[in-house]
Specification:
14 helices, elongated, 3% strand
Length: 511
């Protein structure tokens, strides 16, 4: 029969059409993979040559650490201060207590602050000793992998800063303004030390510590007593000038931010290479991610030297942003898919590479430092003249070397200043500083005193708005059903009880 005369072919014979199709497909995939890998590898090599030409680190071995002797290392003393906290005795900021953002904070706050003061004498002493040492080193060596680096020292540092901030306000309320200023300087020194730790995480924690120190200082400044004021221990003019100088010294915050991008570049390159081990087919995806990361870091590095947020924002917009893949819509009806199964096009992107928020936070803290310095300079001016300045340029050069600029404007305009006629509850004038972190949604500051960051509660997205900071101390009038009892604004009147008005608390403290 005819079929018996046909030559028999084994299914795996190269003469078989199916076999030849499979072999051809394999060859095509191999060629495409090799070409793809060559193209991506060449782009990555060119990018890394640009980085090395600038003298910037690419590998872990390139991250040099300048050794700091133990006797000169403030980090050792700060870690001891963190360990010296007594369990279950927390200062108000370290507790879960809710209280107003302006003094008087109420009796529960005072009880916690006083307990912390009695229990944490060693914490205060060690932090004061650390301030005498300008250098710090929390990591003795850069070891691979960088993404496994421990950060256990950060929480105790934040705890110590909270204790110092509350201790500064407690000292001020008890007539010891000299100690209050010293503790503010101690808290700022913790941020100063963390700025020398070249990671984004440490820079973020340092920014938070700077902010809490500024908020405590802004609450203290309106009632600050400077010698020769009649008080237990007034602050000296030299102390206040030293605090102003520390607040306006922005060199280390900027250098810390620049150095953090070097660490992030090396850490990112190492992480992508680690994730791509054993994945030959899709390895070029990891190399592409490395190239994008390095290119973005060069842009971040350039933006970190710019003096204001608008200029930095425009430059950062040139970065190639890669967001993690969103979960499929069908997962709304069930549990989300595991994060270990990424989208094929974003295999090595489990998190966003957008660092614009890091920049915005940096300029927020710079603005807080500047308005805090202005607040203390204005207090000195008031001590000397008996009035508030009509314009901020009256503070230059005796109280400030120059007027600090609003970092949220590109034109270099100074921090804003206004005197609201009759703006206080007693009819007195209300002087305020402000910077434009966002739009001026109301045209006026909130009715409550402003000594820290706040948002517009009417905006669901909580977008930043213009930030006002008060130079005076006052207590806004309470509704009749919530008048303070026994100087505690947290306690409303009992039925039929008539609380006495605390007239002294309503008036801004006179120098």
């Amino acid at each position: 029969m005819t079929w018996m005369s046909d030559e028999y072919r084994h299914p795996l014979s190269w003469k078989n059409r199916g076999t030849r199709a499979v072999l051809g497909l394999v060859a095509l995939v191999l060629v495409v993979r090799l070409g793809w890998g060559w193209y991506i590898g060449r782009a990555l090599a060119a990018e890394l040559r640009l980085v090395r030409a600038q003298g910037w680190p690419v590998e872990v071995s390139d991250l040099a650490i300048e050794w700091v002797e133990d006797s000169q290392n403030a980090a050792i003393l700060l870690q001891k201060a963190g360990a010296a906290h007594v369990n279950r005795i927390d200062s108000p900021r370290n507790s879960s207590l809710e209280y107003t953002g302006y003094p008087p904070y109420g009796r529960p706050w005072l009880q916690l602050a006083e307990a912390s003061e009695k229990a944490h004498g060693q914490v205060f002493a060690l932090a004061r000793q650390a301030r005498a040492l300008p250098r710090s080193q929390f990591q003795r060596a850069q070891t691979s992998p960088l993404f496994a680096r421990p950060f256990g020292y950060l929480n105790p540092l934040r705890q110590t800063a909270n204790t110092l901030g509350d201790g500064a306000e407690w000292s001020h309320q008890n007539g010891d303004d000299a100690e209050a200023v010293e503790r503010l300087l101690d808290a700022l020194h913790i941020g100063h030390c963390l700025r020398q730790d070249d990671t984004v995480v440490s820079q973020l924690v340092a920014a938070g510590i700077d902010a809490l120190a500024c908020y405590a200082a802004q609450a203290i400044a309106p009632g600050l007593r400077v010698e020769p004021a009649p008080t237990t221990r007034p602050a000296t003019r030299q102390q206040v000038q030293a605090l102003i100088a520390r607040l306006l010294d922005e060199d280390l915050p900027r250098r810390g931010m620049v150095q953090s991008f070097h660490f992030e570049r090396v850490g990112g390159l190492e992480l992508f290479e680690f994730q791509a081990r054993g994945t030959w087919i899709i390895h070029p995806l990891a190399r592409k991610a490395m190239e994008v990361t390095s290119r973005n870091n060069r842009i971040y590095h350039a933006a970190s030297s710019l003096p204001n947020w608008p200029q930095a924002r425009e430059l950062v917009r040139n970065c190639q942003r890669i967001e993690p893949a969103a979960a499929p819509r069908w997962t709304m009806f069930g549990p989300p898919p595991p994060l270990t199964v990424p989208r094929y096009s974003r295999w090595f992107h489990a998190f966003s590479n957008d660092l614009s928020g890091y920049f915005e936070l940096h300029y927020r803290v710079i603005a807080e430092r500047r308005v805090t310095a202005l607040s203390f300079a204005a207090q000195l001016y008031r001590v000397d003249t008996g009035r508030w300045p009509d314009r901020l340029d009256e503070l230059v050069p005796r109280y400030l070397p120059a007027l600090p600029a609003d970092p949220f404007h590109a034109d270099g305009r100074p921090i804003g200043y206004a005197i609201l006629k009759g703006g206080l509850p007693d009819g007195g004038d209300r002087p305020v500083l402000y910077f434009d972190a966002g739009p001026d949604v109301s045209g006026n500051p909130p009715a409550e005193p402003c000594y820290g960051w706040y948002n517009d509660p009417s905006q669901p997205r909580r977008d930043p708005i213009r930030q006002y900071r008060d130079l005076t101390r006052f207590v806004p009038p309470k509704p009749s059903t919530t008048k303070a009892v026994d100087d505690d604004p947290e306690k409303p009147d009992a039925g039929g009880q008539q609380a006495e008005e605390d007239k002294g608390a309503q008036q801004p403290e006179q120098q």
